Amino acid sequence: MPDATIISTGNAGLDTVLKGGLPANRLYLLEGSPGSGKTTLALQFLLEGVRRGERVLYITLSETREELAVVAASHGWTLDGFDIFELGSAEEVFGSGREQSIIHPSELELGETIRLIQDEVERVHPTRVVFDSLSEMRLLAQDALRYRRQVLGLKQFFVGRHSTVLLVDDRTGTNGAPDSHLHSLCHGVVTLERLTLDFGAARRRLQVQKLRGVDFTAGYHDLVIRAGGLDIFPRLIAASHYRDHASEAVSSGVGELDDLLGGGPLRGTSTLLTGPAGAGKTTIALQYVDAACRRGEHCTIFEFDERVDTLMARAKAFGLALASHIEAGLLVIEQNDPAEISPGEFAARVRREVQDRGTRLIVIDSLNGYLAAMPQEQQLILQMHELLSFLSQQGVATFLVNAQSGLVGTMTSHLNISYIADMVVLLRFFEAEGRIRKAISVLKNRAGPHEDAIREFRVDAQGVRVGAPLTSFRGVLTGTPEYVGAEMPLMEDRGVRA
């Protein structure tokens, strides 16, 4: 293959990060701590070669063929089509017609090991090679200078042999620190990391440290290991996903609610529904979902807090036919486990719904659950900002539910995202005529004008109701509102009250 050829790594996510794949006939380093997914990614790299009819070689200094077969079988793969050169068994098997040689590494000097590897490469003439792992070679060398010379010798050996080589290093011989000598010798470096959180599943991520001559996507990219290989979620860059869309208002189907919001949120804007628990934030979002589905638009609800069956039962009690929208294929409700999902995976799910399903309206319920899902993420607000920018570029109307701490009195929020949202809708409990009622108001709307009035808000078996403006209020923004006006503007029952 010509030197300018770009070859696939066998992993769609990594190919996206690399903007196509790896330049062929070069030496690359795949490094990471044990359990980060190096062997799985290396097998995917060779499987892609087998799929393309290429000759591939797996050189293993530590694992046996049986151990590799177990890893492959866990993903539904086989090692058919692989040439495997194995150094890891005390038994010596020669001349048996098998495709590998087995030699005990403790009986070999480093130079002899390298010579045997070179002989096997000369015999197989592979297009793709995986060398697993460099830690064994580092131990045999026992000297940093000798080790570097041997790696440099390997690099020079493969020059002109039309082989793309992946060197795997678990960094056990460097106390977990990157090996700068290797980085300088290799054409590219891909680093895998495994992070243990205080609670929940371990998080894994990938970073391309360097790749000469390629404009790759820098930064960390979340990943998970699933049956079938590594699922890599390239970091979301909103600016590269713009598409033209109409800036029309999104109606809720409730005229008074649309009037309060200046006709409704515009396409490509985000609306923050904030207030105490039980004030009706999710119900307002569901009202917009129901209206959008009735117009034939695709919608998606990402649920972090409430169970889907509970959400469906509540919507049915309010006269919202979500079940029929799901049956029609217009609505998808995704339940997210806060202990399992990473920011990159969540962003990938949102992208899939928007780009593959054509979703026009998204609800994230709630931001508190999203925050709980990523307690140790330092750049959570920045990632949410990028996600909302992507949705804005795609013309998607987004509703964010945010429950403030407390039910009455002064309330606060641990996630200050109000500056990111284009519209902020505030809900509050208030007392009047011996009853607990709810008030709704709009604090800001970047997209245009909105009412500055405070209206009563109620939900019953017939759906959402928004009353006339209430002028005789005290202390709404303090969290302890009190209505001191006449009884006439207050809404009365029209059936079973929720």
What does this structure look like?
The protein has 498 residues and is an alpha/beta fold. It folds into two domains: 230 residues, Rossmann fold, CATH 3.40.50.300; 244 residues, Rossmann fold, CATH 3.40.50.300. Helices cover 29% and strands 26% of the residues. It is built from 14 helices and 22 strands. Strands 5-4-6-7-3-8-9-10-11 form a nine-stranded mixed sheet, sandwiched between helices. Strands 14-13-15-16-12-17-18-19-20 form a nine-stranded mixed sheet, sandwiched between helices. A hairpin with a 2-residue loop joins β10 and β11. α5 crosses α6 and α12 runs parallel beside α14. The chain starts with 5 loop residues before the first strand and ends in a 15-residue tail after the last strand.
What's this entry about, in short?
By secondary structure, the chain is α/β, with parallel strands linked by helices.
Topology:
Elements: E1 6-7, H1 12-17, E2 22-23, E3 27-32, H2 38-51, E4 56-60, H3 65-74, E5 82-86, H4 110-124, E6 128-132, H5 134-141, H6 144-158, E7 164-169, H7 180-185, E8 188-195, E9 203-211, E10 220-226, E11 229-233, H8 255-260, E12 270-275, H9 281-294, E13 298-303, H10 308-317, H11 322-327, E14 331-335, H12 343-355, E15 359-365, H13 367-373, H14 380-393, E16 397-403, E17 423-432, E18 435-445, E19 454-460, E20 463-470, E21 473-474, E22 482-483
Parallel strand pairs: 3-7, 3-8, 4-5, 4-6, 6-7, 12-16, 12-17, 13-14, 13-15, 15-16
Antiparallel strand pairs: 1-2, 8-9, 9-10, 10-11, 17-18, 18-19, 19-20, 21-22
